[in-house]
Amino acid sequence: MELWTILRDIVVLLGASLMVGGVFSRFGQSPIVGYLFAGMMLGGPGSLHAVGSEHEIEAIAELGVALLLFSLGLEFSVQRLKKLGTKPLIGGASQVVLTIALAFAGARLFGLGGKESVAFGAMVALSSTAVVLRILSERGEVEMPHGRNCLGVLLTQDIAVVPLALLMTIMGGEGSANEVLWNIGRLLLMAGGLIVGLMLLTKIAVLTLGTLTLHRNRELTVIFAVVTGLGAAWASHAAGISPALGAFVAGMLLGSSAFATQIRADISPLQVVLLTLFFGAAGMVADPIWIVTNGHIVAMVVFALVTGKMLVIWVIFALLGQTTRVSVATGLCLAQVGEFAFVLGSIGRTSGVVSEDTYALVVSASIVSFFFSAFLVPAAPRLGNWVANLTGAQRQVADEASERTPPPDVAIIGFGPSGQIAARPLVDKGLRVTIVELNQVGVRKAQQLGFHAEIGDATQSDVLEHARLNECKAIVITVPHHQSAMTILKHVRRNAPFVHVIVRSRYEVHTDDFLSAGAHVVTGDEQQVGESLAGHLHQWLVTQEPGFEPPSSDSVL
Fold first, then answer.
1. Which of the residues 105, 194, 205, 423 has the least number of beta carbons within 10 Å of its own beta carbon?
2. Is the pLDDT of residue 231 over 80?
């Protein structure tokens, strides 16, 4: 019966998130705000108590953050992660230390004890991985300079969770110095073993997938994606590491494989559901009555934290040589208190370091800062530009956008015989060509010709988006199945209305359908076959009757 109660609560929370998130989306706001409101009103202290399984839902919802990091890891292979450089990692470590120091000073100023002030600083130092990366991913800004900074800082903060949790335990007086050192050593050893294990498992998995006919067994990549993403999260948790960080490492190791695009698309629906549950569960942590009763204190703390974190990150990245625009945008994106404040606060309460009022204040400030982040993160590049113009530091987006990997010039969807013939003029022309194909034989052939190839089902819009086909100059669709080709064409026209599209039509009867759907050129198989047959028949007639003058191929047709 308990299982069905949890299921009912999940359905109620998702249904409310759908309605409230839809209302916010209708008015041009982030649906995340709606998810938080739905959770705050339905469950937790001071709510309608329509949902009573908040702890179980929160545990399930944490997997959404892990899958978000897993899909981002697929975007950032080991080679691409190296391109992030050391600045985001240095900036993240500096931000954590400096924020803890400033928050400690502020807490002491307002009368908190020494240990509780340190705990307060640790709780507010971390930003929200789920909020920031979800919005940046939706807006396609993860690869922009401020997006790469945010990713580096958030990864550093995820790493910092473990030592901060140990710090909370030590301040609570639990365990001797030798026990603490033993725990640290054991944790480092398990982390090293986990990374080695993930490297071996991903290599074996990629080799295994390479032997399967994925174009005929589409469910295999779905199962593989879920097992890998959630399995890495579980293994990391078992090793005492952040599950999200372990999932990111697993995704990053798979990111250099040809399967990355399709795995990312397959895991996306489950990720959306779990992340929606995460934000709903985050809303249930807050007590709206406590927030209203202590509104002036919460407002003051939120203003101080958001402003302080933004300034700290701005200054750190400016000192690291980043432009004013990028530094300010990074600071605005990360100027909130993250979900790990709940985890660290729970440890602090259990060990007696954090009082109930301090915990309630930090949780309330976190939730309110989530609301502000839903507006600040989308506006960060624009506000960064405004500050840059105001201060006279006018190095604009064009300079920074040039750092991104250039998009493909031409994309060919389907690389069977037709696609390979169509690609012949593109060989050794210096053009950036991307091939999207489910059959691994076609992918290997494309790579042999020097093209960039990805394994993916192009009928899924996520595959087209991740392959950046919306930025192409021309797209050739050679998929023989009429309905699949039509679905791909509609996705292309919706996301890239000005790209030149050439479509293969297996039957002449479908030509007008493709032209009506937005294709510029349609080449029919039947016409090509008919012309080829007429040509061969013409040659045969000549050889059979030397003095015979056969009609032209046009007459034969």
1. 105
2. yes
